[in-house]
Amino acid sequence: MSELIQAVLDSNERTDLRQFASELRKRDQRYLLRNDILTAFSDYCNTYDRSEDFRQQSHLSKLIYYVQEIILEQESLCLIIRPKIANEQAYWVFEDLTIEPMTPQDLLDLRDRFVNRHHPQEGDVLEIDFEPFYDYSPAIRDSKNIGKGVDYLNRFMSSKLFQDPTQWLEALYKFLSLHRHNGTQLLINGRIQSQQQLSSQIKRAINFVSRYDTNEPYNKFRFELQELGFEPGWGNTAGRVRETLDMLDSLIDSPDHQALETFISRIPMIFRVVLLSPHGWFGQEGVLGRPDTGGQVVYVLDQVRSIEQQLQEEISLAGLDVQSAYPKVIVLTRLLPNCEDTLCNQRLEKIHATHNAWILRVPFREFNPKYTQNWISRFEIWPYLETFAIDAERELLAEFQGKPDLIIGNYSDGNLVSFLLARRLKVTQCIIAHALEKSKYLFSNLYWQDLEEQYHFSIQFTADLIAMNSANFVVSSTYQEIVGTKESVGQYESYHRFTMPELYHVVNGIDLFSPKFNVVPPGVNETVYFPYHRSEDRVPGDRDRLDKLLFTDNDPAAIFGTLDDPNKRPLFSMARLDRIKNLTGLAECFGKSEALQEQCNLILIAGKLRTEDSTDREEISEIEKLYHIIDQYNLQGKIRWLGVRLPKTDSGEVYRVIADRQGIFVQPALFEAFGLTILEAMISGLPTFGTRFGGPLEIIQDKHNGFYINPTHHEDMAEVILDFLSKCEHKPDYWKEISQRGIDRVYSTYTWKIHATKLLSLSKIYGFWNYTSQENREDMLRYIEMLFHLLYKPMAKSLLEKHMQA
Ligand code: UDP
Ligand code: LCN
Questions:
Q1: pLDDT tens, 722-765?
Q2: How many C-beta atoms surround the C-beta of residue 580 within 10 A?
Q3: Do the beta carbons of residue 112 and residue 497 sit within 8 Å?
Q4: Separation CA 436–CA 635 (nearest Å)
Q5: Are the CB atoms for 416 and 385 separated by under 8 Å?
Q6: How much distance in Å is there from the Cα of 525 to the middle of ligand 1?
């Protein structure tokens, strides 16, 4: 029994619980989510005149705080409690206050009953359960360590392996013998034929390199070292070679998990990386900001550059310049025959500011050309991915002239392809969700049948389950992406247990305590986005041009609105016009607040101005809504809406121009998985107001280097901004203080250098443990293959049939 419920039952608040339940019955709603429950409790306290103490401190208030959902049935109600992060419990509460725990199956059946899709007389639905497969790996015990998987895995596996010195040495020896680059052996050669020999040769090699000056280049003594059994890969100078050999020597004698991590991170084992972002519009110019791409394209392009740079650095330090070893990074996406005015129909495109990083575009096979010649929404893309993976494999092998060493998937579609490729090529698989649609759309699983025509969530959620379980490791941008906060369920957590009525029940979709999860946040492109006060790096002509564009230019084709007073403080936001980005909510908040209108102008950069220019349903409806709000609140003269897609360099300067005028940035999304614009605004020096729903909650430290807003409460949101403005008035340096702290926050925590170093180190360590560990994931992978063939493929096929008939 839950302690929270027991405490209520043991107190004189039993009656309150009963009364509260009967009040709930008077409402229309039978399915209440956390916000509804808190409101219902507050209404209850008002109706029954309960004290402030009762509202805040009573046992019932504590219970209510942790209740995520309530489902009302005829005779009972079901409480779904989340007393701890990643811990869900469900109970029946009967009218006489008898409490009974519910099994996962009870709960999923109940949810199905709620939508009239429970048919026990026809037998059970398929149950998907990954739990039995996770017994091969250790589990993190404390939820606060979730997201630090690699540390945990490394410590756990090392202690196991170190217990048996012979096994440990054998594993190390085999692992070191494995590495090659373009057919050339690295690290150790055939002269070292056993683990014992490895141990003794290391000591001889250390003695040998100690004779050289620390800075002596590796080239000068490579052949002597080769005689001793050591090939390139240990270092670029005598000092570095010695350091690496010393590490190995002490690892052999007195193994230690941290030393192992440092040693493995040094080994040159990654040269070729492929990043997958199949759904297209992946390009460097003129494509950002289209529906479906947005931040993911920005993220991947910056990530590629940082990975290449980091790999190059590591390869040089390892002394592999003598091998003419260069890293190669490929972004694999689809080739779009009808690519409008972009380069998305080019097979190969070099990525700017890299030596050897490319966008490789592979077309979808032609099924119905009306579809396959054109861009296909991420919700419709599923039938084309398997054949894409087959064709892409061939092209990748040709481009790399061999197998990649690491496959990184992006978003549900790329992650599924990463599973297919990694399985065929036997390569380490990393996935990055960016945004899991399941949490973006309320009740997306419960009402999946009603949404199927438009969203095809049945296929997407199946793909997500496949990818997140098959991946060797998962990179997430925040902790809450995995397991949420005390109050809210995480994105991955939402896959733990859910129903897809009449299709399947997921009783354990993902093990949140698995060490596969790692928080590695992205960075921001520091050559494009940098603080406004770095005048020496700014181009005055661009500044003036963009200042005019933002505040005064008259161009009805691209800009809506003329400002009555362009000198008011700009309140700025930039996003795609998706419903979830909620720019219309920001406009409404501005419209409702006379005080904000007195002090600020609202400046929005938001895709398009005309519905006829868009083919995206959500975008069209948001454009209409924005015009409606402008009329309703009479915002003419106070708002500028720029329907432009800015080139990247301009978007950097735009933030700085707003900062020149001591403006602020507001990110009002109803939910934001991470929020790259938050980083961009902060590093530019704009005091930033970010939604409290999602990633911004982790990036911003409230009232220190930015502010949280609740975009669903317009008055409160205006209040937070007004409070800041009033502080600025009373304390002239306040704007600058917050601005500088925002800049410091990004430089200290969100750089691509930090990201790439961590990502590559993770890849090597997971690679090592995959190779070394005796446990084997084959049983789980076979189960996943079944799901792919028996669930995913038939659904994708029936979607294809629809496309063929269109
Ligand atoms: N962006 C842009 N032009 C626009 C809107 C957005 O260049 O009109 C860029 C923005 O600078 C950021 C990215 O697109 O780099 C949006 O990423 P974010 O993570 O904020 O949101 P997403 O679009 O991925 O949901
Ligand atoms: C997708 C999103 O929705 C954003 O929140 C992220 O910042 C972006 O991808 C990059 O990961």
A1: 999 999 999 999 999 999 999 999 999 999 999 999 999 999 99
A2: 18
A3: no
A4: 35
A5: yes
A6: 13
- Please name which ligand lies nearest the alpha carbon of 674: 2
Shared domain for 576 and 498, answered yes or no, is no
Cα 567 to ligand 1 centroid, rounded to whole Å = 26
Q: How many CB atoms lie within 10 A of CB 455?
A: 18
Mutate to test the pocket of ligand 2, among 299, 480, 579 (most ligand atoms within 8 A of CB): 299
Instruction: Tell me, yes or no, whether 420 and 348 share the same domain.
Output: yes
Domain ranges, residue 41: 2-102
DSSP string, 69-135: EEEE-SSEEEEEEEEETTEEEEEEEETT--EEE--HHHHHHHHHHHTT---GGG-PPEEEE-GGGGG
Q: Residue 653 has what pLDDT?
A: 97
Task: Read off the pLDDT of residues 228-251 as tens digits, 9 standing for 90 and up.
Answer: 999 999 999 999 999 999 999 998
Contacts for 552 with CB less than 8 Å, ≥ 6 apart: 563, 566
Q: Supply the pLDDT for residue 292.
A: 67
- Taking the CA of 581 as reference, the closest ligand is 1
Average pLDDT value for residue range 759-788: 88
701/774 same-domain check: no
Q: How remote is the CA of residue 798 from the centroid of ligand 1, in Å?
A: 34
From CA 407, how far away is CA 418, in angstroms rounded? 6
Q: In angstroms, what is the span from residue 130 Cα to ligand 2's centroid?
A: 27
Characterise 666 by phi-psi region: left (phi > 0), alpha (psi -120 to 50), beta (else).
Answer: beta
Question: Same domain for 238 and 282?
Answer: no
Q: Are residues 200 and 85 in the same domain?
A: no
Computed over every residue of the chain, the mean pLDDT equals 94
Whether pLDDT at 97 is above 90: yes
Confidence bin at 291 (pLDDT 50/70/90): low
Residue 771's pLDDT is what?
81
The average pLDDT across 132-138 equals 84
For ligand 1, residues with CB inside 6 Å are 288-289, 294-296, 298, 574-576, 605, 607, 645-646, 651, 674-677, 680
| 302 ligand 2 Cβ < 6 A | no
Domain count, the chain: 4
Query: What is the percent of the chain where pLDDT is above 90?
Result: 85
Taking residue 62's Cβ as centre, other Cβ atoms within 10 Å add up to: 15
Q: Quick check: CB of 672 below 6 Å from ligand 2?
A: yes
CA of 672 to the centre of ligand 2 (A): 7
CA of 672, nearest ligand number: 2
